[in-house]
Amino acid sequence: MEGVGADGVGSGTAPANQFWIDVSRRYQYYLDKTTPHAIYRWIGSAVIVLIYILRVYYIQGFYIISYGLGIYLLNLLIGFLSPLVDPEMEVSGGGGPLLPTKGSDEFKPFIRRLPEFKFWYSFTKAFCIAFVMTFFSMFDVPVFWPILLCYWIVLFVLTMRRQIAHMIKYKYIPFNIGKQKYGGKKASASSSGSRGD
């Protein structure tokens, strides 16, 4: 009797669970394959953003969703521009600043609090969720959108001003300007060629 009951319960839930586990693994597999292709990922996200903007413009509604999306994206941007360990907290903790503050300090690479891949993933997922929400009329709350836009712009300017002041104070740049190039063999070959003459 016990074997029949266990099989009955297991056979009903196991295939459903296995299906979702397989879907999750396949999704993660394809997501992992996109990791090195940053440019293509961001192009795809730009297409999703454009589709969302066209949808909101065409419907002339869902401004509260767009405002909430803007606040969420601002929060993501702050995490993307911030170091993993805040130097202000590290200084007060007594361990000394994590980022170099003087030219004589040891070089320490900038490590983001929110890595680029997670930033992209959260950014894209937020636009997809907001796009799906535009199909439900209960989320179309009537608001005067220019006030929301002005408030978001003020919030963005104040937040970025504070973030830029933080970058200047602790002397870090959260972007890779480009890969540093070294002379290597070309420089040594040209110098040895000039010695032979």
Task: State the main characteristics.
70% helix, mainly alpha, single chain, flat, 7 helices, Rer1, 197 residues
The count of strands amounts to 0
Number of alpha- plus pi-helical segments: 7
Structural shape? flat
Q: What class do helices, strands and sheet pairing give?
A: mainly alpha
Largest sheet: none
Q: Tell me what portion of residues adopts beta-strand conformation.
A: under 5%
- How do the helices and strands follow one another from N- to C-terminus? HHHHHHH
Cα(first) to Cα(last) distance is 97 Å
Radius of gyration: 25 Å
Helix content: 55-70%
Poorly predicted segments: 5-9
Mean pLDDT: 80
Subcellular location: Membrane
Keywords: Membrane, Transmembrane, Transmembrane helix
Pfam family, one: Rer1
Membrane topology: Multi-pass membrane protein
Reconstruct the topology from this structure:
Layout: H1 2-33, H2 38-59, H3 63-81, H4 87-93, H5 116-133, H6 145-170, H7 184-196
Membrane topology: Multi-pass membrane protein
Organism: Quercus lobata
Protein name: Protein RER1
Task: Give a summary of the structure in a few sentences.
The chain has a domain at 63-174. It is built from 7 helices and no strands. It has helices at 2-33, 38-59, 63-81, 87-93, 116-133, 145-170, 184-196.
Overview of this protein structure:
The chain is mainly alpha-helical. The chain has a domain of 112 residues. Helix content is 70%, strand content 0%. Belongs to the RER1 family. It is a multi-pass membrane protein.
